[in-house]
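2024-03-11 09:14:02 INFO worker-7 job=invfold-0412 stage=load source=structure_tokens
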């Protein structure tokens, strides 16, 4: 997992300060680096209902070829993806209770533990947003803690579903995730919940301590979007459109590109 809060990426102004205090400052690196050099900040996600083993293996090969930060695959395909990665330096991630986050805490913790045993390097977990919307904060906090404990020593990124929350609930979600020991916070689980935007990413970066990373996810399909969320403070970007973003190729449609 990329180390969170590297100042090279996290200056939300888009301009990096100069040590001599001069007014003229160079542009943020995310604004000027070529797309292929931004690939290391992209987590290459494969999501959808009708995913085949062939697609999983191809997805993993792509992640290694284009030097993405990690390949993300559905839990059922972690074993096949791990075998495909054998002998490479590629990293593998998967999801906990994606996309709705409405399983029981016991089931969510069991899935996290199973993914750990299967050999993932990364875990992105939805939150049970229903607990939060129902003001059942004790259950919400306990659920986060259980997932983190089951995944240890792998850090967990919690997808906070911020577009579904009020301002007060957003603060509660962020605080609970940080207090539980989240490694990263993410604005949303997918584009159907909300498109990642610079304002939301800036909010998250300001709301969490430097030890907690920020991941942008949800409807990111262009290099311009990637640049904008990195400038706003994201450490990582989750998208199913990584190849299109770094090559400029036409984006394929369909459910595999809904993340």
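2024-03-11 09:14:09 INFO worker-7 stage=emit residues=259
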């Amino acid at each position: 997992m990329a180390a969170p809060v590297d100042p090279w990426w996290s200056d939300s102004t888009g301009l990096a300060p100069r040590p001599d205090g001069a007014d003229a400052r160079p542009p943020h690196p995310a604004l000027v680096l070529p797309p292929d050099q931004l690939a290391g900040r992209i987590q290459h996600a494969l999501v959808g209902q009708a995913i085949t083993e062939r697609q999983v293996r191809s997805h993993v090969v792509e992640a290694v070829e284009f030097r993405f930060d990690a390949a993300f695959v559905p839990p059922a395909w972690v074993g096949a993806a791990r075998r495909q990665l054998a002998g490479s330096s590629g990293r593998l991630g998967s999801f906990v209770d994606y996309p709705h986050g409405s399983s029981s805490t016991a089931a969510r913790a069991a899935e996290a533990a199973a993914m750990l045993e299967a050999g993932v390097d990364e875990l992105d977990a939805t939150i049970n947003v229903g607990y939060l919307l129902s003001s059942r904060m004790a259950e919400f906090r306990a659920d986060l803690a259980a997932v983190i404990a089951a995944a240890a020593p792998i850090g967990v990124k919690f997808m906070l579903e911020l577009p579904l929350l009020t301002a007060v609930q957003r603060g509660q979600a962020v605080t609970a995730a940080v207090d539980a020991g989240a490694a990263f916070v993410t604005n949303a689980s997918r584009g159907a919940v909300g498109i990642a935007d610079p304002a939301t990413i800036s909010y998250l970066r300001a709301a969490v301590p430097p030890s907690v990373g920020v991941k942008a996810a949800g409807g990111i399909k262009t290099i311009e979007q990637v640049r904008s969320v990195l400038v706003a403070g994201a450490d990582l970007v989750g998208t199913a459109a990584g190849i299109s973003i770094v090559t400029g190729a036409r984006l394929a449609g369909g459910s595999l590109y809904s993340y």
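2024-03-11 09:14:09 INFO worker-7 stage=report msg="The chain is about 40% helix and 15% strand."
2024-03-11 09:14:10 INFO worker-7 job finished
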